[in-house]
Design a protein that fits this description.
Alkaline Phosphatase, subunit A, 11 helices, 2 domains, 16 strands, 498 residues, two-stranded antiparallel ribbon, alpha/beta
């Protein structure tokens, strides 16, 4: 009789656990906010106006792990993804997000003569000619002109998920100026990472370059919402109380059970401990998530540009060409992350550097060169790798910030977000000059993909030889309820999602 009662008591305890498990379910597929609504989806795209390779490097690709698949190695340029020491920027160690980030390499934007530019392709010209095919999947040309153009992926996603937000999309730029004497601005629409096709025209979206203006447009007069806070706290307290009661109840009968039932009970305790650990990670609703950040204050002064030679080419000039872009970029990343935390926006496009970027690398990474000249032999290969890593660090900061920001139910914002980093060029054949081993190439391009929305696989190096960069985006679009197609490009990168 004692055994029968014990088993019934045990089953009642296990049954109570089963009853409470749906309410405590914390997987990404079924998370909901404390107010009862589904956690919003989010999207971030970041862009570096620099190539991933350096002229004459042979088989060396400066932004590429040597191993494919899981557990890829981190070259110096990707150190911000890991936890090891880094020697540039404002951090001593990486952000520890490698397991959240997949590297997609071997990508290619095709090219052709002005009368026969392929779908998603471009003319043979390089600079100012590669961002739009990647962002919109639409061919560009003739020459360096936009042709018909297309709507960029960040705005396509914003149209799908941004309804009801104060800022359906954000467009930011880190590089403060063009940094050429006599042209100390971006000018010419070169900063238009976000584009919209409407009424037969493609228009660039002006990017906000001032951290102070970005802050004021987001948070001036903003009061973080606290609707449902008391109810959420009460519900969380109840959940923790249920787990405590179950542990006490089942512990009291443990010594009276046989070996088989004790094993079942140990498994039961393991499940309870796991649930308790996950609940312990959940911040008190209304704290530690959506808050008004500290004002960034006055923007850093904008520096002068480099001098030019008589033929108009840039002459590297020490002491100019840097307006504290590391601080500007970190501030922009943190503001964008908080804007998504507070659901002020759900789509962010951030241009880190302008195409053919002339940022002075001396202060950011210790290289006596402008960043563009580094792709053509300026400074040392190591300094060039650190310059790529300087770009990667902003991406890693965004991924880490979203990963470490918890919703009231215990989910991470990264569970509901995709973050993508792309670059102006890769490394290989340059159709404009007809030469190989060049930085002015759209062969061997690389993209970094972070986030978990839609079942994206993290921690992989995927070789997608000759696939189009826009196909990385089209792989992600179904996660936002959209077809797997961006402009003229469709299909998915094998292994990236699933």
């Amino acid at each position: 009789m004692a055994n029968g009662l014990t088993r019934r008591a045990l089953l009642r305890g296990l049954g109570a656990t089963a009853a409470v498990l749906p309410a405590l379910e914390l997987t990404a597929e079924s998370r909901a906010s404390a107010q009862g609504g589904a956690e919003p989806k989010r999207f971030v795209v970041m862009y570096g106006g620099i190539s991933a390779g350096r002229d004459g490097s042979g088989d060396t690709h400066h932004l590429l792990p040597t191993r494919t698949g899981a557990g890829y190695d981190l070259p110096r340029s990707m150190a911000p993804l890991g936890t090891g020491a880094i020697t540039y920027g404002e951090r001593e160690r990486g952000y520890g997000v490698q397991d959240e980030v997949s590297v997609v390499s071997g990508l290619k934007i095709p090219w052709g003569p002005d009368g026969a530019i392929p779908p998603g392709g471009k003319s043979v010209h390089f600079h100012y000619n590669t961002a739009e095919p990647q962002m919109s999947g639409v061919r560009r040309g003739p020459n360096r002109s936009a042709g018909e153009g297309g709507t960029s992926v960040d705005l396509i996603i914003a149209d799908a998920i941004g309804e009801g937000t104060i800022h359906p999309s954000l467009s930011y730029r880190v590089q403060a100026a063009r940094y050429i004497t006599g042209s100390n601005s971006s000018g010419g629409g070169l900063d238009a990472l976000s584009t919209r096709r409407a009424d037969g025209r493609t228009r660039g979206i002006d990017a906000v370059v001032s951290p102070r203006l970005a802050y004021e447009s987001l948070f001036s007069g903003f009061i973080p919402p606290d609707d449902g806070r008391e109810e959420a706290i009460a519900r969380m307290t109840q959940r923790r109380g249920i787990l405590s009661a179950l542990r006490t109840r089942t512990s009291s009968i443990r010594s009276r059970l046989g070996r088989y039932d004790q094993l079942r009970l140990e498994q039961h305790f393991d499940e309870l401990r796991g649930l308790e650990r996950r609940l312990a990670m959940v911040p008190e609703p209304g704290t530690g998530a959506c808050v008004v950040p500290t004002t960034p204050g006055t923007d850093p002064a904008i520096a002068d540009g480099h001098r030019t030679r008589e033929n108009g080419n840039l002459l590297y000039t020490p002491g100019v060409g840097y307006s504290r872009e590391t601080l500007r970029g970190n501030t922009m990343v943190d503001l964008a992350k908080m804007a998504m935390t507070c659901d002020l926006t759900r789509s962010v496009a951030m241009r880190i550097s302008l195409d053919q970027t002339f940022i002075n690398a001396q202060d950011p990474v210790g290289g006596a060169s402008d960043m563009h000249e580094m792709t053509h032999g300026g400074a040392t290969p190591q300094a060039f790798q650190d310059t790529l890593g300087w770009h990667v660090a902003f991406f890693a900061r965004m991924v880490a910030g979203l990963r470490d920001t918890m919703a009231p139910d215990g989910s991470s914002l990264l569970d509901h977000t995709n973050v993508v980093l792309l670059f102006e060029g890769g490394y290989g054949f340059d159709p404009e000059s007809g030469n190989s081993q060049k930085a002015h190439s759209t062969e061997n391009m690389v993209m970094l993909v972070g986030g978990r929305l839609g079942g994206v696989n993290g921690g992989l190096h995927i070789r997608a030889v000759d696939m189009h960069p826009a196909q990385v985006f089209s792989s992600l679009l179904p996660g936002y309820g959209l077809p797997s197609r961006l402009g003229e490009m469709s299909g998915s990168v094998p292994g990236l999602v699933g």
